[in-house]
Amino acid sequence: MADVSKEGGEGTMGEEEAAAGKKFSKKEAAKLERQRKRQEHAAAAALSAVSIDETDPLASNYGDVPLIELQSKAVTGRKWTEVADLTEELKDQVVLIRGRAQTIRAVGKKMAFLVVREKGFTVQCVLTVTPDVLSGQMVKYAAALSKESIIDVEGVVSVPKDPIKGASQQVEVQVRKLYCVSKAIPILPINIEDAARSDAEIEKAEQAGEKLVRVNQDTRLNNRFLDLRTPANQAIFRVQCQVGTLFRQFLLSEGCIEIHTPKLIPGSSEGGSAVFKLEYKGQPACLAQSPQLHKQMAICADFGRVFEIGPVFRAEDSFTHRHLCEFVGLDVEMEIKEHYSEVMDVVDRLFVSMFDSINQNCKKELDAIGRQYPFEPLKYLPKTLRLTFEEGIQILKEAGVEVDPLGDLNTETERKLGQLVFEKYGTEFYILHRYPLAVRPFYTMPCYDNPAYSNSFDVFIRGEEIISGAQRVHVPEFLAQRAESCGIDVRTISTYIDSFRCGAPTHGGFGVGLERVVMLYCALNNVRKTSLFPRDPQRLAP
Amino acid sequence: MADVSKEGGEGTMGEEEAAAGKKFSKKEAAKLERQRKRQEHAAAAALSAVSIDETDPLASNYGDVPLIELQSKAVTGRKWTEVADLTEELKDQVVLIRGRAQTIRAVGKKMAFLVVREKGFTVQCVLTVTPDVLSGQMVKYAAALSKESIIDVEGVVSVPKDPIKGASQQVEVQVRKLYCVSKAIPILPINIEDAARSDAEIEKAEQAGEKLVRVNQDTRLNNRFLDLRTPANQAIFRVQCQVGTLFRQFLLSEGCIEIHTPKLIPGSSEGGSAVFKLEYKGQPACLAQSPQLHKQMAICADFGRVFEIGPVFRAEDSFTHRHLCEFVGLDVEMEIKEHYSEVMDVVDRLFVSMFDSINQNCKKELDAIGRQYPFEPLKYLPKTLRLTFEEGIQILKEAGVEVDPLGDLNTETERKLGQLVFEKYGTEFYILHRYPLAVRPFYTMPCYDNPAYSNSFDVFIRGEEIISGAQRVHVPEFLAQRAESCGIDVRTISTYIDSFRCGAPTHGGFGVGLERVVMLYCALNNVRKTSLFPRDPQRLAP
C-alpha cells in the first residue's frame, strides 16, 4: 500500500503530495478527453452487468445505479432510515434504507425475500409480484443480486403476526423499489453467516449430521474487512470505542491532560531484540515500546496528571493468545503527594466506573458478542480489592502452591491466584501490590521499609494481568544507583536521568492495553479478536 | 532510552519484561543488605546537602524532606490547595501548597519573598522572622533554595492592599513552614522567566538599554521538559487537549466510532523517500503515512463513520515552519449517501463548534498564550464559507494573480487567496472545493460533470491549508483505471483495490493535523511550538 500513501495519504501535512500530481494545461485537453471517455466506459461497464429487461414497463423501479449517479451528482433531499431504527412505530410508512443484501431467497417466480443488513442489524424485505407495482423481472433481478452487495430499498413497513427469526428487526419491508449501489463479487472469500456462527451452533449441527463451515482465524484476518461485518465484531469495536471514551472522560474529569508523545525515539544497538529499529535521517532510531520516558518528562514539565492513548510497539517473538507486536496503550502518569495508593485509587475508580458504564450503555453490544462467544459478566466489587504480593503468596501457599516469595508469578500461577481470590472474595478484578523489587523495572521506587519490595502493583481481570503500575524513582542520584544495580550502563540513559535534575515531582503511573481490556472484559480467548488489524510476529497485513 | 523500555516500559503486554529482572532467593540476603545500605546512603546524601542549623529550636519548621519520607511512607490525610485556587475567599486560612520555587528574593536577613508556581499559576509567599514562629535560619534556608525546586509551603492566606504584579494570584501566603521535596540543580539550562518572556518585552528592555536573555528554539527543544513549564506552553497543550476532546466528542455525537489502525504496514522499496522503512520479522515494512487504507477498509467493514486520532509518519526533508516528521493526525472517514457535501457539512459543523467551545472554555489559556505570543482571535462565520476552486481562481485573477486553472496552489498563492477571501467575506476559515483532479491522489472521485475536476476540498485557516478531504472512488475497476492513469502499478495496490470488491459503500473523508490546528488557531509561527516533543529531519530527541 506504499503507493497509496505516496500519492497523498490525505494531505494533512500534504501540499507536496498533492503537488506530486502533474499540472494540467490547455494543451492537455486531448488527454482529458481520453480520461472522460474512460470514465464513461467504466460507467457503461458497471451498467452492462445489469440484465434489465428493457421491455418491462416497471423497469425504472429497480436496477443498478450507474456510476455517474454516485459521483455526487445531486443532493435530492431523500432521507434514509437506519435498519436499527425500523420498528413497529413505522408501520405502514414508506421508508428508504441502504444496506447489504445479506441473504437472498426467491420463492418461485413471484416472490423473493431479502435480508438487508446495516451495521450488524438486519431486516427482512419482501418482494411480491403485483400488477402495475412490482414485476416478475424485478423479482428475478433481486434473486440475481450477489450477497453483500449494497442496495437501496424503498418499501412499506409491515408488522407480521409471527416473530421474525432470521433478522434482528421485528418488522418487514414490503419492497416497491430496489437499486444496487455497489455490487459484490459473486463468490466471497468469507461468507458472513459462516463467520458469525458460534461454535455451539456448529457443534449442534454436527451432532445432527450437518456439516457447517467453520471459518478459521487466519482466513478471518486475511479478509478482515469482511470478517469485521459480523454482528459480534461490529459490537466488539463499539465496546472498544466505549472503553477508550470512558477512559478519557474519567481522566479528564480528574484533571488529567491528554498528551501525544513521539513514537520515533533515538535508539542504539543496545535496544534489545524486542525493539523495532529503523534509520531516521541517518540516525539510529527505534519505535517506542511505551511512552514511559515522555510521560514522566511531561510530569517534570508540570502537567500534573497526564494520559495518552496511542500505539505501542513490541518486536517480541511471542506467539500467545495475549501478545501483539503493535497494540493501543492506555497510559497514565500523575504527581503523587504522599503515597502510591493515590495511583491505585485512580485505577480503582476508573475501572469500576468504566465497567459500570459498559454494562449500562453497551447492552446490545454485549448481547451480540455473547451470541457468538458466550461469556459470564465480569464479577467486580464497587471498591476494588487490594492485596499485597505477600498476601497473594500466602493465599497460594494455603492452597498448596509453592512459589518464590521474591520472584514473579507466571501466567499459570496468576490464573490460579485469580481463581483462589475469586473463591475467597467473590471478585474477578483485583489489585496486587508491593511486588518484589527485583521483578520490576529499575525506575520503580523501592518500599520505604524494605528494599526487597517496591511501591508497585499489577491489576488482574479473570486471572490475567492487565495493568502494571508503580511509584517512580524521582531522585536522579538514586535512579542512577538503581539502574547500576540492575546492570544498566548509566551513560545510555543520561537524558532520562537528567530530566529529574531540575526539580522532579514525586509521581507514579500505570499502563494498560486497550485490546486486553476488551478481550478480558468479554472473556474472549484471543487478543486478535479485539485488535482491528492485528500485528503479530507472523502478520503484518492487511 | 532503549534501556528504559527494555526494562519494562510499564508492562501492558509485559509479563516477560517484568520477568526479565532476576529472581531473588534467600541466599541473596547479603545482596539485599547491600542494597538497603545504598538506599540509606542515598537518603543520607540527599539530607547532607541541607544546611539545617541543629541549634535552631524552630528547625522542624523547615528543611529538606528526606528520601524515605517520599517513598510512600504514610498517608497523613493532609490536604494540598492548588495555587490556581488561592483566592481572597481563603483569607486568614491556613493552606498547604506544593509547587516550584520560581523566584527567591531575600530582603536583609529578616525577610524573604518566594514566588511559588504550580501548573503555570503563581503566588507570592512571604517569610518574616517572628519570635517563636519563624527563625532567621529559616529565612536563610529559603534564600538558599535553588530555583525550580519543588517545595511544600504551609502558611496563612493574606490579602495585600495593592495589586500583586509578580504573580498570577492576588493573595499572599504568610509562610509558617517550608520543606523542600525535590531539589533542582543550582544552574538550570533554561531560566523559566527567560523562556516565558515575549519578544515585545525583550525589545522594550533593549530600547531601555537592558539586555534580556532570548532563549532560542533549539535550546528550548533540547530542554523541552523545562521549556514546557512556561505559562504559554502550559496553555498551548491544554488547548491541544481541548481540541482533541472536542473533535472526539463531536464525532461521537454524530455516530462515529473511534478506531485504531496499525502504524506498521507492509512496505516495499517502491515506498518512496517520504516513508520510514524498517524490517518487520524479516519482512520489509514501513510506518503508515496516513490511516487512509485502513480507515477506508473500516468503511468497507460496515462501521459507517469512523475517526482516528493517532501518529502519522512522514520522512520528508521539509524544513518549513509547518512540517514535522511525526505528527498527530485527526482522520475521519464516512459513508456518504449522495454527495461529498455531506463530508464538508461535518467539517463545517465540527470546526465551528470546536472554535466556539475553545473560545468559551479556554479563556485563561488563550490569554496566557497571548501574553507571550500576542494574536488576534480567529475570525470565522457561523456557517462556513464554501468556494469552488474555479471561484478561488477567479478571485485571484481579479486581484491580478495569474495561476494555472488546473494546477495546484502554492503556499504563497494560498496565503494571498486567504487575504482576498478575508477582505471579501470577512472570514479566515473557509472551504475550497472541486479541486483539479490532477493535483489530487488517484483514489479521489472525479466530478460527474467534468473529469478535469474532483469531488475534493481543502480547508484553510489564516491562509494556510489545514484539512484535505474528498469523496473516494469505491468502484474497484474504476479505481484500478485511475491508478493506472496516475502511473501507479496496479499490482502493488491490489490489496487496497480488492477491499472494494465485496460491496463498497460510497464514502469520503478528511484528515487534519492536530498541531496545525492549534498553531493556526493561535496564530503561532511554528508547528514545533504545538508539538510536545517535535520530530523534524534534524530532531529525534528528546
Descriptive report:
Chains A, B: It is an enzyme of class 6 (ligase). Chains A, B: It is found in: Cytoplasm. Chains A, B: Belongs to the class-II aminoacyl-tRNA synthetase family. Type 2 subfamily. Chains A, B: Keywords: Aminoacyl-tRNA synthetase, ATP-binding, Cytoplasm, Ligase, Nucleotide-binding, Protein biosynthesis. Chains A, B: Its EC number is 6.1.1.12. The structure is a homodimer of 542-residue chains. With 542 residues, chain A is an alpha+beta fold. Chain A folds into 3 domains: 100 residues, Beta Barrel (OB fold (Dihydrolipoamide Acetyltransferase, E2P)); 36 residues, no CATH class; 300 residues, Bira Bifunctional Protein, Domain 2 (BirA Bifunctional Protein, domain 2, 2-Layer Sandwich), CATH 3.30.930.10. Chain A is 32% helix and 21% strand. Chain A is built from 17 helices and 17 strands. In chain A, the strands form 3 sheets. In chain A, strands 7-11-12-17-16-15-14-13 form an 8-stranded mixed sheet, with helices on both faces. In chain A, strands 2-3-4-6-5 form a 5-stranded mixed β-barrel. In chain A, strands 8-10-9 form a 3-stranded antiparallel sheet, with no helix packed on it. In chain A, β15 and β16 form a beta hairpin. In chain A, α9 packs across α11. The longest helix of chain A has 23 residues. The N and C termini of chain A lie close together (9 Å). The interface between A and B is large, with 207 and 209 residues.
